[in-house]
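User: I've been going back and forth on whether these two constructs are worth ordering. Before I decide, could you fold them both?

Assistant: Sure. I'll take them in the order you sent them. The first construct and its structure tokens:
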Amino acid sequence: MKLIEFNKSFPDELSCKKHFKAYRDQIGVVCKKCGSTDHYWKQDKWQYECKKCKFRTTLRSGTVMQSSKLPFQDWYIAMHLITSTKKSFSAKEIQRQLGRKRYQPVWEMLHKLRSVMGLRDGEYKIEGEIELDEGFFETVDVERTTKSEGKRGRGSEKQTKVMVMAESKKVEQLKKTKKPDKKVGFIKMKVVNNLKSETVNKVVEENINRQSTVTTDAYRSYNNLKNVVETHIPQVVEPKQAGKILPWVHIAIANSKRLLLDIYHRIDDDFLQNYLNEFCYKFNRRYMQDKLFDRLIVASVSYRWNQL
């Protein structure tokens, strides 16, 4: 949604609340007390009242805004800003744009939105021809020493391990180009504690359709992937050939790292998954353009954020 359109559609708090209610009515409200889905709308209270047990549910309850004291308009402005650009905004920048004195509520709001982005993408599994590889993202942990350099890559103490998966279908190119000869579909990026075979298999089982064909390098932790997918193609990947054999996972890793470096001074390892959720959510909906804002509203109404 363009800025001018946003200002016309949501000029005040009431317009945002009415818009949010319209989407909530479409999704439906479930009574927390008896499980009924039939409700009256109490206009004077701005709450839903269960027809069966008379239990009342606020407009925010059960959504991403639950327990938040920030106005609806602040949430809408934040959602507009992070969906109107391929990149993102730091909590400090959003705080300045909203004119808020306190940083913490704004920071929590953005992480709640990233959390429901991940919950929405978690509803689907990727399928077909899949590229799979691991990435290493530099993060900060107050309990981790930062004086020693330590080892790099696999096993590094300063980096968080991420499993990266991308739908990648081979296409015929009419002329020579530097672009990959594969077309990318959806991607997934999952933070993991280790790269043991059991961990890798669990991530693959949860995120990739079993009837898929998965291409990886020859790392030994991928040896048992044949137990969770129909076809596994391990290949010895030289550094210079990585861009040809596994092009899109490396593009996803490079682009996400560049985005994080451009915007944030540091990333806490506890919240890296949330930042990757935002990157994947926007990448997977890159062709939606103006509809991306509405899709985030649907996710915000449908899910309550994961506990921070």
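The second construct, handled the same way:
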Amino acid sequence: MQFRAKVLTSRARLITWTILGATLLLIGIIVSIYGHRLSSKIRSLTDVADRISVGELGIEIETRSQDEIGELADAIGRMQESIRLSIERLRRRH
């Protein structure tokens, strides 16, 4: 009876560690994928901001996300349009 209890305890422990390991692996994969997608979007917006800063005001900002990154992209788009309008007003004055 005691031997059987040890075997069942050992199996339960093995199953628990297996489930824990698989769960941690799955969480790691999900975080890695999400992190890669997030950093890719940030790199893209950084590239757009750099191009705007050197005068490329016609560059298109592709925004599909509805999260904070999407809000940042919208803000950069508004800034781009504001700069474009300011330059047009300055040109009309001179």
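Notes on the second construct follow. The chain is about 85% helix and 0% strand. Residues 48 and 54 are 10 Å apart (CA to CA).
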